[in-house]
Structure to design on (225 residues):
């Protein structure tokens, strides 16, 4: 990948792939870094998971609560393998893992339309395939790729590779009727799709780069050892 010193880690279970890369002092790339490394390159990848997450949850309480979707390209609860393993042990629901309210609230507080995006549930499309032109106008796709400018660059690059439409994997949860927790998935990407519907307990691979001390310290401050 152009401009990115990276390695891939694959395992039968995603948790094991994350454990492998963190043991070697690597951290999964977030979507923005992943696509930045692709734009202008000759690489056309198979599917990889990223450290970015999509989180479905509710803000408020009772009948006045609103369904919100957070797309975050920052260190998060599931980048600690013990947290991911614990959450999987608590039960994977339609591919999603529980995220504690505290962690969900933290991501909401960091919303900046740069690395953390907060969307209303109605802004998440349910089309399985969308044309490049449709994707250019999608707030969800802007959030997935890390902003309007990056989305335009990446989708234009895909067009230059002969891609005219892209698979859009979104599994809209039907269990957003509770305030006791949120549910999350890692975002995945390949040469013809953007996926927010992949299971947290499936076979998969991360692309990771050597651990950045600043990111590592952020993780430790936020979640502790």
């Amino acid at each position: 990948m152009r401009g990115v010193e990276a390695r891939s880690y694959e395992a039968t279970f995603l948790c094991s792939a994350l454990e492998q890369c963190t043991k070697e002092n690597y951290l999964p790339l977030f979507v923005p870094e992943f696509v930045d490394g692709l734009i202008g390159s000759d690489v056309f990848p198979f599917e990889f998971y990223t450290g970015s997450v999509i989180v479905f949850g509710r803000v408020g309480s009772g009948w006045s609560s609103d369904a919100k979707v957070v797309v975050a390209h920052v260190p998060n609860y599931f980048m600690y393998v013990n947290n991911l393993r614990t959450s999987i042990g608590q039960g994977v629901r339609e591919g999603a893992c529980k995220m504690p309210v505290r962690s969900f609230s933290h991501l909401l507080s960091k919303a900046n339309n740069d690395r953390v995006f907060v969307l209303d549930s109605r802004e998440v499309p349910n089309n399985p395939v969308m044309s490049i032109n449709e994707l250019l106008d999608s707030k969800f796709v802007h959030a997935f790729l890390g902003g309007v400018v990056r989305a335009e660059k990446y989708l234009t690059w895909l067009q230059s590779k002969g891609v005219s439409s892209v698979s859009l994997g979104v599994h809209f949860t039907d269990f957003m009727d509770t305030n006791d927790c949120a549910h999350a998935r890692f975002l995945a990407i390949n040469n013809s799709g953007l996926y927010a519907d992949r299971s947290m307990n499936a076979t998969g691979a991360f692309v990771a780069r050597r651990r950045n001390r600043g990111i590592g310290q952020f993780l430790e401050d936020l979640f502790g050892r």
About this structure: The mean pLDDT is 83. The first helix runs from residue 14 to 23. Residues 6-209 form one domain.
